[in-house]
Amino acid sequence: MLDSLMHMFRSEKSGKVAKKRLQMVLIQDRANVSPEVMAQLRDDIIQVISKYMVIDKTDMEISLENVDDSVALVANIPVQNMKHHRR
Amino acid sequence: MSEVIVVTSGKGGVGKSTTTANLGVGLAMRGQKVVLIDTDTGLRNLDLLLGLENRIMYDLVDVIEGRVEIKKALVRHKKFDNLQLLPTSQVKDKSAVNPADLMVLCDELRKEYDYVIIDCPAGIEQGFQTAIAGADTAIVVTMPEVSAVRDADKIIGELGRSEKDNIKLIINRIRPAMVESGEMMDMDDINDILAIKCIGQVPDDIKVVTSANRGEPVVGDNDSQAGRAYANIVGRLMGEDIPFMEFEKEGFFTKLKKAFGLKKNG
Question: Which among B32, B191, B220, B246 would be 20 to 30 A from B262, CA to CA?
Answer without folding.
Answer: B246
